[in-house]
Amino acid sequence: MITPTAALLSPRGKVLENGMPRFFRRLAEGVLDEDDVRRRANELADFITNARERYGMASPIALGYSNGANIGAAVLLLRPSVLAGAILLRAMPPLAHPQPIKLDGVPVLIASGALDPIIPLESAAKLASLLERYGAAVEHRASPAGHELSQADVTLAQSWWPKHASARANAQ
Q1: Which of 76, 132, 134, 167 has the CA that lies 20 to 30 A from 101?
Q2: pLDDT tens digits, residue range 139-159?
Q3: Which residues are catalytic?
Q4: Nearest C-alpha neighbor of 74 from the set 51, 97, 54, 58
Q5: Architecture in CATH for domain 15-171
Q6: 141, 107 Cβ separation under 8 angstroms
Q7: What is the pLDDT of residues 32-70, one digit of tens each?
Q8: For residue 112, what are the β-bridge partners?
Q9: In 3D, which of 108, 103, 68, 116 has the Cα closest to residue 86?
Q10: CA 17, CA 42: separation in Å to the nearest integer?
């Protein structure tokens, strides 16, 4: 829906929680297992690197929702050269104390739900601030929604994508 003509690399998380695939474990709702986040983010970064080599792909822009957005943020924070940018829908900081990195101008869109009971707006704002501090070009928007995705999220990502995908292509 966001960019129908883009190439798609769609990994699935290896962790099952109540029968649903996730990218990493949680200790409780809103409490991430940071050791598992680090391990799984590095696995995902290796997968992306191998896929890029195998298929001759440019660095991708990550698109993730909730757990997928958090693993995307973790890859940015742990292996910044792997991704060209990210669209993070309902994301929070995946690591309490990440090591300083350089995200010089990496474009990131964070879409939050102002009424989200799982990831409060303040938590998403903390992630935006962290990424900005490391140099990312962050656009953080909140819609009058909860944790669910809305058409407003799709519309926002659709308008963000062309500006940043074309800039990425010109930079590579």
Answers
A1: 167
A2: 999 999 999 999 999 999 999
A3: 66, 116, 147
A4: 97
A5: 3-Layer(aba) Sandwich (3.40)
A6: no
A7: 999 999 999 999 999 999 999 999 999 999 999 999 999
A8: 142
A9: 108
A10: 20
